[in-house]
Amino acid sequence: YVIAFAAILLLFLPVCVAADDHPRANSHPPQRPLPQAVDRELARGPAYFVDPVRGDDAHDGSIKKPWKTLQYGVRRLKAGDTLYLRGGVYHETVYLTRSGTEEAPIVIAAYPHELPVLDGGLREFLDSPSTSWKPVKDGPADEYVSTKTYPDASDRRVPHQFLPGAWEPMWGREGQRPLALGHFADSMIPLHGYRTLEDLRSSNEYQPKSKNAGAVYCGPGLWFNRQTNRIHIRLAHHKLPGLGERAYRGATDPRKLPLVVAVGFGQDVLRINGIKHVRIEGLVLRGASGSPLIHIYGSEDIHLDHVTVYGGFPALLVNASQKLRVTHSAFRGLAAPWSGRSHMKYRGTASYQIVLQNAQPYNEDIEFSNCEFTDDHDFAFLRYAKHLRFHHNFVDNFNDDGLECGAKLRWHTIYIHHNRIGACLGVFQQHEIDKDESPVTHDAESGVYIYRNVFDQRAGVYYGLPSKPDPSGSFLHHEGAVLSDHGSPTYPVMRVYHNTFLRRGPVWRNYFLFGLGARALRNTERDVFNNLFIQAKGVPGAVVYGKEAGNLREGGNLLRGVTEGLDEKVDPFAKLRNSPLFESSKQVYEPGWTTQDIVADPRFVKLKENPGMASDLRLSKGSPAIDRGVTIPAKWPDPLAEAEDGKPDIGAVPFGTEAWGVGVDGRIPLFGGAQPTAP
After folding, report:
1. Cα–Cα distance between 147 and 135 in angstroms, integer?
2. CB burial readout 491-507, b (16+ within 10 A) else e
3. What CA–CA distance (Å, rounded) separates 407 from 395?
4. 230, 401, 438, 578: which could form a disulfide with 429 (CB 3.0–4.6 Å)?
């Protein structure tokens, strides 16, 4: 896959060309790589074409006489057809209604080397920004208002995409629901969706005395005025010390910046409902407001490949569907570089990126692989799925919840493996939706299998607003927790083995095994074997409360405090081993907790203190982690088990094994930075 440079200049609009020939945004540098055009040959078989520039829906859909609109084209497809989208912007919302067959699927694909964009937004702000805004009267000098009105934006559609049984984020204050969302078109950096005009106009960027009272400027953004039906915008520069390169310093006049702007609520940009055997390849999707960008309901054998998704609330909503595959795709959320948890949760859009809901039949056979999920408030509600595989993905910068796999169900099975999972406030976050909802018993093979992942939380997330100047920017790097919850749910069964965990400091209360060995063991069971727990400051603790052991089996783990050094005379497990809890643990796991664990330097090839620099977390020759793991049950999946020579090694990557790439086309190294080679 190669970057179609000309297509990017066309679609992500007027940019300067820097000395290194890379596009330079007039707004803010992109947070992540911009989309790439698919480099593949035209498929054999029946094919039709759509072109938003040269097309006409009165044409026959041939390559010389393409249709103009995507919606017109998809309604004319039959099994075995391929619909090619020429490069350009399709200002449409699209509903797929035709099915293929297993032998002859329908394919909707980008034309080779071109980049089509499905945009559910308002085209005037992209095509003619100079005439779409005017200075606002009686407001700040840098505030503008739309020249047109949008009376249909506030028609109060009923929300349907939120977590089943959970509080709808705007319950009780519908009048503050953000109805205008968007992005800078040149960089695809999100614009904040404001709840109140007071926040949009504020010059304050510090935490007020109350998290909900007092106005706060949350960065460049939009607010929809329900009385005038106009959109307000302000692109003021930041003054908050400590933001550094994250601060907005771009153009402040929206008439000089093409923007992606969407208004309203509840309008899916791409709806896939009640169809089978369809492939979607190489598209860019954007322009959602407070609604799912992609909504898949009651469908089977749907494959999204090499798609790029910007925004959405959520970006992907899945319900009552089977055999869904999402591969080599990038999901970019609503968190701008200057967006923190407090901005989004209390003053903006508290968005989830992926939501699986619980209509019947349950979602089944779902796969996310080689994808990138970044830059949002909450990540993924995966609870309602039978046999879900989540592997070789990159997850980073979620300022609230990460992977939500529970509470416990009797039957669900989730496999999370070979991923690089970075900064999330709570990596594994659980919710209790209904009081005492989870069963005490469960199927023996059910649960969440977590193996061969690298979890690196050291970068931290923008959690709370500073209450006073902090030029160090420490407020941008709150580390959060590995395991946390809302409402004390019954956790799913978790099998956690052969992973590498990296943190700067201890978890809350310095819990055992970063919390995996101590928290939320009521009415569930957990296995924690052969993991590396590496902490920059202080040796990871062995704190467990109570006198009766929960149903925890653990051993073969290595704990290391990088800056503390090793004192062989100090046993960090001594207090636990002298407690009644230790004796109780033998009834659950015969050796007793901690007896098979070690405290040592794993002797990585290279561990960089700065999480932004490339490390090499493979084991060097002579590492104490080699052959020090315990044997795990053969029925637990582990494709690297054959690489083990003798007893298992501890950590994500066995000694002598090459690290793999994650994300789109494996372009992101497992350890960050340049892909390491064998020592």
Report:
1. 9
2. bbbbbbbbbbbbbbebb
3. 21
4. 401
Q: What are all long-range contacts of 605-614, with beta carbons under 8 Å and residues at least 24 apart?
A: 605/676, 605/679, 606/676, 607/534, 607/562, 609/536, 609/562, 611/422, 611/456, 611/458, 611/459, 611/502, 611/672, 612/459, 612/672, 613/672, 613/673, 614/669, 614/671, 614/672, 614/673, 614/674, 614/676
What is the C-alpha separation between 238 and 12, in angstroms, rounded?
A: 24
- Give the angle subtended at the CA of 555 by the CAs of 554 and 561, to the nearest 5°: 105
Residues linked to residue 85 through DSSP beta bridges, in sequence order: 50, 110
Would you give the DSSP letter of residue 582? H
Query: Taking phi first (over 0 means left), then psi (-120 to 50 degrees means alpha), and beta for anything else, what does residue 351 get?
Result: beta
Nearest-angstrom CA–CA distance, 410 and 437: 11
Q: Whole-model pTM?
A: 0.94
How far are the Cα atoms of 76, 237, 242 from residue 468, in angstroms, in the given order?
A: 60, 18, 11
Q: Which residue has the tokens 């999100």?
A: 190
Distance, in Å, from the CA atom of 32 to the CA atom of 300, rounded to the nearest integer, reads 31
Residue 250 is given by DSSP the state S
DSSP 105-122: -EEEEEPTT--EEEE-S-
Tokens of 383: 């609870």
Q: Which of 228, 217, 253 is nearest to 135 (CA)?
A: 253
Radius of gyration of the chain (CA): 26
Give the Cα separation of 249 and 246 in Å (integer).
Answer: 9
Q: What is the pLDDT of residue 4?
A: 36
Distance between CA atoms of residues 430 and 489, nearest Å: 7
Peptide bond into 247 cis (omega under 30): no
User: Is 108 within 8 Å of 85 (Cβ atoms)?
Assistant: yes
Q: Which two tokens stand for residue 369?
A: 């692989």
Cα separation, 212 vs 196, in Å, equals 11
Q: Look up tokens 């596009």; give the residue.
A: 23
26: amino acid identity, one letter:
N
Q: What are phi and psi of 50, to 5 degrees?
A: -130, 135
Tell me, what's the pLDDT at 674?
56
Distances in Å between the Cα of 436 and the Cα atoms of 126, 168, 443, 491, 552 are 50, 20, 18, 11, 21
Concatenate the DSSP letters of all residues of 362-424 into one string.
Answer: PEEEEEEES-EEEEESEEEE--SEEEEEEES-EEEEEEEEEEE--S--SS-EEEEES-EE--E
| Burial profile 396-435: b = 16 or more Cβ within 10 angstroms, e = fewer | bbbbbbbbbbbbbbeebbbbbbbbbbbbbbbbbbbbbbee
Q: What single-letter amino acid sits at 151? A: P
Q: Show the low-confidence residues of the chain (pLDDT under 70).
A: 1-23, 163-167, 211-212, 435-436, 565-569, 674-679
Adjacent-strand bridge partners of 295? 271, 317
Q: Rounded to an integer, what distance in angstroms lies between the CA atom of residue 342 and that of residue 465?
A: 7
- Predicted pLDDT of residue 677: 46
CB under 8 Å to 528, separation ≥6 — which residues? 496, 497, 513, 516, 517, 552, 553, 554, 557
Rounded Cα–Cα distance for residues 286 and 260 (Å):
8
User: What secondary structure, in 3-state letters, does 584-625 show?
Assistant: HHHHHCCCCCCCCCEECCCCEEECCCCCCCCCEEEECCCCCC
* Nearest one of 593, 439, 579, 450 to 522, comparing CA atoms: 439
